[in-house]
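# nightly structure sweep
# worker-07 picked up a monomer target from the shared queue
# config: single-sequence mode, recycle default, output format = structure tokens
# input follows
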Amino acid sequence: MRKIGFNDGWHCRTLPGGDKFDVTLPHDWSIGQARRADAPSGSAGGYFVTSDLEYTKEFTLPEGTKHAMIYFDGAYRDAEVYVDGMLRAREPHPYAPFQAEVSPKTGTHSVRVTLAASAEPSSRWYAGCGIYRQAFLYVSGETAIDPLATRINGEWEDGSAVLELKAHCVWDVADTDTLEINVGGLSFSLPASRAGEGVRLPCPGLKSWTADEPCLYEVSLKLMRGGVCLDEHRAETGFITVKLDRERGLLVNGKPVKLKGGCVHHDHGILGAAAYPEAEERKARLLKENGFNAVRCAHNMPSAAFLEACDRVGLYVLDEFTDMWGTGKNLHDYHRYFDDWWRRDLLAMLLQGRNHPSVIMWSIGNEIPERDGSNSGYSTASCMAEFVRRFDARPVTSGLNNIGAWKAEMLDANLVKDGDEDYFDRFATPFLDKLDVAGYNYMFSRYAKDLKAHPERFIVGTESVTHEAYETWQATQSDPRVTGDFCWSAIDYLGEAGIGHIRETEGGGYFEGYPFKTANCGDIDIIGNKTPASYYRDAVWGRLEKPYIVVQPPRRYASDGFVSYWGFPERYNAWDWPDSEGQPIRVEVYTCTEKVSLYLNDELVGSERAEGRKAVFETVYRPGTLTAQDDTGAQSSVSTPGASAKLEVRPDRETFNREGQLAFVEIALTDEKGVLRAFDRRQLKVDVVGGRLIALGSADRKSEENFFDESCRLYEGRALAAVLCGGKDAEVTVSCPGAEEVRTLIPFKAQ
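# output follows
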């Protein structure tokens, strides 16, 4: 079936009775609305508001179309799709892809999608609302290759590539029809009927796919009849096989791999939940550039665009189904539909992900209350795991938190300690026995004990916190049966507002009140910048090439305050404290070496041994330059910025090549020498000619600014703009008081 973009020409309105406005998919209605302290989504939803929505569109089918369907990659939530006035699809899952059949006719068709997203609370994080992922139209003649049911799986066996193919041809298929296959320049021809039964095709000379070398090959399938091509399907594949070995651990193409992973939610910060392909690509690249070789899609199936990006960039994916089963965590979440829908929705995840080489593990749930056997939890786990195995051979896991004596659920259970009786082992073992890999959230201290008690068990650290990164990674490396670790979180996200908080006094619950909007617990902030926590992880993972300096603010010298379990102490890669000259100050240096020396204005402050990849120094603040030098002679410095201000503007692409393409423009304020003005909060303005500014913002975790405004205040000296191509050259102008205006051109060069 031919795949056609279906994102343009939509109209949206709020229900009941709102006025229509034009939209292009992907579209998140929530992100553009004013937040409210009394928003029903609460702290979990970042105090954003939601609404019931209706989307409408008219379209015509290409001439000769005999079969057609509309494919939605995800919509939040409780979607109903009407085509030409008839209900053609229903999907309550907020992240599952779904399809609606179109009965071809002459003239114009209409489609109407309704979403029931106003009932809150419905999520433990910011979800947004709308058709927030892409849509496509699939069309064909009388005979076609079904793209959703066709399995194209590249395997790596004994050093050779093998293509496992099951091409599902539908409707008017003749016995004499053939399937012509091309992969990486190799050609095969099979009877169409045989291809539908499944074949394995050796592919000599083709390379394997790994996160280190993500080698992809285009696969072309042509359904032929008497020399005429009836239909063609194109895809990409990579050759990879994942196995578990008690002596060697997780094997990718026969070689041991430790997963250096991070958890991510589906939002894109200033864009909200809108899953633009360029945003998904940027997210994958940020993870890879910052040392991650794996990503856990928490706690829902990702977009197809994100999986495609992981295939290209090289990231192992832990593909996760849901955050709850029949026992809900919010009044209006998926638990209402789980019993009736989980098979259809889990199948949708498997069909979406199984052809991607990046997907190496399936998770059937996160911190499921039924993990203790309640609500038929053990039998449900068994049914779901076996359901996955019927469709795919990759390992099945589920992320579990601790089980306390009081059956405490959700976040409390992560921290409960129960004395002599091991409640986790008692209640969780029958659940974990149904899985291939046991997912442990925040329980690295159990690894050695549990692997001794259960020598057949494999473990993956499905969640861990950064302040325990050193201890967690030591435990991860201690046994090959521990396959890796996924930190919480790799990228900061909207919602769970302030879970990574720092307070002056103890107590007050997990979350922060309005106007907090981000979790404040990412290695990377919501606009894509590395935080001190990320550099600390670099040291823990042994990838820090030179020492990295962070400074405790002078006002924190007596105490870091009360840092939440998911938080990281307040630290800055900055030396700019004009009101604190002569006052004591604490400096930390992250390093991969045993010892570090620190200099202030070329005078030795001292030399210290690094404990847990961190050396700590005491000095007094004086303006100038702070320099750290490690055992190898590698150095890094941080300086007090000068009085001048200069804007640095860096688009992430050199050219636009299609209308509707997205570019991210990174903005920083420095002095004349390029030293970041880390505490400058000047107001910034962005103007775009020849394109459209669709979002602008900073990483300020509690700013009340709207991401749709043309101005924002800098935070830690930085901001980020998202610019949409209008089909011609786009000129981006950035200005702020006291700095020279900067103009940047992104040329349009159509492909």
